[in-house]
Automatic annotation (TrEMBL):
Residues 374-384 have a biased composition (Basic and acidic residues). Residues 390-399 have a biased composition (Polar residues). This is Uncharacterized protein. Residues 54-88, 338-399 are annotated as: Disordered. Residues 359-370 have a biased composition (Acidic residues). It comes from the Eukaryota.
Length: 399
C-alpha cells in the first residue's frame, strides 16, 4: 500500500516506548470518531529525543495533532529523515510486540505506516517510514523483475518450471536465528521488497532503498541478510535515491553477495559488494552509461535448491540504468502531482451513506436490566481487584 506523502516522522525513542503509548490509544478509542483514524490522532515529535534519556514525552496523542502532519516540511520536499535507530533490549522489544499483539487497530496502523527491524544480536532497533517516492520507485523495480520472471515462466523448459515457483513478497517479515543464542531467539526484518521460492525458507533476492545519509545502513542490512541467513539469501540490492547537497538528483546502485575466504583460522563467510555505488542517475537527473541491475534466475533461491531444480539452465534478468531512472522519475512526478490529477466527482445532489462498522442490536428493557446488573458487578469486582473474576456477559448472551 502506497503511503501518503504527508507521512509521519517518528522518533526511535517513541517506537521503543510504543507499549506505553498503547494505553493512551485505549482512551482515544473510547472517545468519538477519532478512534479508527490513528494517523489523525497521533503526534510524533521530531527531532527525536536523545535515545539515552527516558523519552516518555516522545509520543503524545490528541485530536488536534493532525495539524502537525499537515504543516510538516516533508509535504514540500523529498529531504526527509525516514529512518532512525536506537538500542533496545530484547525484553523491551518483546514487550513492544506483545502490546502490538493485544491491540489490533494499533498493530494495523504500525504495519501500514511503519517498517521496523530488530537485530537481537546487537539489540539494534531500526524504524523506517517509507514515503511516496520510495514506495512508487520500489513498485517500478519490483514490477520489472516480475515481468521478466513472467516471460521466463511462459516457456516449457526447466527454467520456466523454476520461475513459476518464484514470487514477489514486498515487505514480508523475515526472521533469522541468532548464532550462539537460546533456541527460538530470532531477529526480525521487513525489507522493502523480496522474492521467495516456494520451497525456500528465506527469500533469494532482497531489495532495499535508502537515502544519501543512510548508505552505511544499507551495507549493515546486507550483512545481516546475507550472513544471518547462512548465505541462503543470494543477493541484496541497494538503491540509494539521494537527495544530495545542492539539489543533486544523483542515485546509485549496489549489490552484495557472499564469498568464502580462506583465513589462518579456516574458511570464513563474508559479504562482498559486487557492485559498489554505481551511479545510474547523475546530479541533473539523467541516466548514466554505467551497467544497470543484473540478476540471475539462480539468485531467487538458495544455492542447493537452485542446483537441484534449475541446474545449468540459468537465465539473466536485467534492468538498465534508463529503466531505473524512468521508475524513479515517474515516482517523483507522481508524488508532486498529487492533488492535481484527474478524478471523478459525485453528481450534484448525491449523498454518501456509510455502513456502521458494527450494526446496532435491538436491546429490550429486560436486556438492559441484565446488562446494567452485569456492568455493576463487573465494576465492583474490578475495583476490588478480584483475581478470580471472569466477565461472563458474552458467554451468557450467546446461550
Amino acid at each position: 500500500m502506497v503511503l501518503e506523502e504527508r507521512h509521519t516522522l517518528i522518533s526511535a525513542t517513541a517506537i521503543v516506548q510504543l507499549h506505553d503509548a498503547v494505553h493512551g490509544y485505549v482512551y482515544i478509542r473510547n472517545s468519538s470518531s477519532i478512534a479508527p483514524t490513528y494517523h489523525a490522532a497521533i503526534k510524533f515529535r521530531w527531532p527525536p529525543v536523545d535515545a539515552s534519556t527516558d523519552g516518555r514525552e516522545a509520543l503524545r496523542a490528541g485530536p488536534s495533532s493532525h495539524r502537525a502532519f499537515q504543516s510538516h516540511p516533508s509535504r514540500k520536499t523529498h529531504q526527509a529523515r525516514p529512518v532512525d535507530r536506537v538500542s533496545a533490549s530484547s525484553r523491551k522489544y518483546d514487550e513492544i510486540e506483545r502490546q502490538l499483539g493485544r491491540d489490533e487497530a494499533l498493530s494495523e496502523y504500525v504495519k501500514d505506516k511503519i517498517r521496523y527491524d530488530y537485530n537481537r544480536g546487537s539489540n539494534r532497533l531500526v524504524i523506517r517510514m517509507p514515503i511516496g517516492v520510495h514506495e512508487f520507485f520500489i513498485d517500478g523495480v519490483e514490477d520489472a523483475i516480475r515481468s521478466q520472471l513472467k516471460t521466463i515462466r511462459s516457456g516449457s523448459d526447466t527454467a520456466a518450471g523454476f520461475a513459476q515457483r518464484v514470487r514477489a513478497a514486498r515487505s514480508s517479515e523475515i526472521y533469522f536465528p541468532i548464532d550462539d543464542a537460546p533456541g527460538g531467539t530470532k531477529s526480525k526484518y521487513g525489507p522493502d521488497a523480496s522474492f521467495w521460492h516456494d520451497d525456500a525458507e528465506y527469500p533469494g533476492v532482497i531489495i532495499e532503498v535508502a537515502y544519501s545519509q543512510k548508505t552505511k545502513r544499507l551495507a549493515r542490512l546486507a550483512e545481516d541478510y546475507l550472513l544471518d541467513s547462512d548465505a541462503n539469501v543470494q543477493a541484496v540490492v541497494g538503491l540509494n535515491i539521494g537527495y544530495g547537497k545542492g539539489g543533486s538528483r544523483k542515485a546509485t546502485l549496489s549489490v552484495w553477495r557472499t564469498r568464502v575466504f580462506n583465513t589462518a583460522d579456516g574458511n570464513e563467510l563474508r559479504i562482498a559488494r559486487e557492485v559498489a555505488d554505481d551511479i545510474f542517475r547523475d546530479d541533473q537527473g539523467h541516466p548514466t552509461d554505467h551497467p544497470g541491475l543484473r540478476l540471475y534466475l539462480s539468485d531467487f533461491a538458495h544455492a542447493g535448491l537452485a542446483r537441484v531444480q534449475l541446474g545449468s539452465h540459468n537465465r539473466e534478468l536485467f534492468i538498465s540504468t534508463e529503466q531505473l531512472c524512468e521508475f524513479l522519475t515517474a515516482a517523483e512526478v507522481k508524488v508532486h502531482q498529487r492533488g492535481s490529477l484527474s478524478k471523478d466527482q459525485l453528481a450534484p445532489g448525491v449523498k454518501k451513506r456509510k455502513r456502521l462498522e458494527t450494526p446496532p442490536e435491538e436491546v429490550t428493557s429486560e436486556d438492559e436490566a441484565v446488562y446494567a446488573e452485569q456492568e455493576e458487578r463487573a465494576a465492583k469486582r474490578t475495583a476490588d481487584s478480584d483475581p478470580d473474576y471472569q466477565d461472563t456477559s458474552t458467554k451468557s448472551s450467546l446461550e
